[in-house]
Amino acid sequence: GIGAAGAVTAGCVGMVLVQRRRVLASLPQQIRRAVSLGRLTMAYQPLVRLSDRRMVGVEALARLTDDRGRPIPPDIFIAIAEEKGFIGVVTRKVISLTLTQMRGRLTGDEAFDVHINFAVTDLLDDRLLTYLDGEVSRLGISPARVVIELTERSTAEHDRLREAVETLRRRGYKFFIDDFGTGYSNLAYLARLPINGIKMDKMFTKAIGKAAASSAIVDTICATARSLNVELVAEGVEEPEQAARILELFPRAVGQGWLFGKPVPAEHL
Ligand code: C2E
Ligand code: MG
Ligand code: MG
Ligand code: MG
């Protein structure tokens, strides 16, 4: 039967489980708290037209630190905010900080766009869109300078998605499919969405000059952008050879990556 030793062991296992549960539960709490305390900051990464190396915009990327000031990777805190249902709060802060910090460039004479990442629930949230409209008009920014990015994975056929994208476009914003090539979207479906551009995921940029099979996908993605008649941004451009190849395949392409600049605070842009 279960002796004293067994009971002690069971007790220890129980305590370990409780402790582990407490540690795991604290990350979403830390994230929620950090956001509400205003510890969310923004980094901006240049978008560079490959033909003349001119900066034609930036992508706004959220940054957050934990209670000890250590950075939490965006992939992680965004996923948790989505799962726990407070991504809308994050996106509001992102909109507010980004439009305020980029206002000078967004209201200047030179062509300059800002890309903001949305979760699919953001896109379907009327109040968030109303908030965006309010901020854009309060700051005197043209909606045409604001590009909403949505990852291809989250475009999986959703009844209301097309309607939401159409609303966005009607109000003058631009719409890009992010991480293109990593989802399983049906091209016929994508072709019916009023998209302005696609962002080729960095895994394909990395493949340039490497394995023939994955390198061929780069040609296919460029051909897709051409046939949909949309803009193309290549993510993760680290090597000059990658930029050269993409320029060859798509002369109007824009690049984003360490070759041109890492994400930095507004004042370092
Ligand atoms: P993403 O939207 O695809 O953003 C591009 C990611 O690639 C960024 O990672 C950027 O730092 C990274 N990157 C850019 N150039 C290079 C390069 O040359 N080499 C390599 N290895 N990486 C490069 P980051 O900032 O860690 O963000 C990760 C993801 O988190 C984003 O991927 C986006 O999906 C999400 N995210 C970030 N900020 C926000 C936000 O404000 N809202 C939402 N919903 N998602 C966000
Ligand atoms: Mg993005
Ligand atoms: Mg991306
Ligand atoms: Mg990506």
From TrEMBL:
Name listed for the protein in its UniProt record: cyclic-guanylate-specific phosphodiesterase
Enzyme class name: hydrolase
UniProt keywords, alphabetically: c-di-GMP, Cell membrane, Hydrolase, Membrane, Transmembrane, Transmembrane helix
Domain EAL residue range list: 24-269
Primary location recorded for the protein, binned into one broad class: membrane
Enzyme Commission code: 3.1.4.52
Location of the protein in the cell: Cell membrane
Membrane topology type: Multi-pass membrane protein
Catalytic reaction annotation: 3',3'-c-di-GMP + H2O = 5'-phosphoguanylyl(3'->5')guanosine + H(+)
Transmembrane segments: 1-18
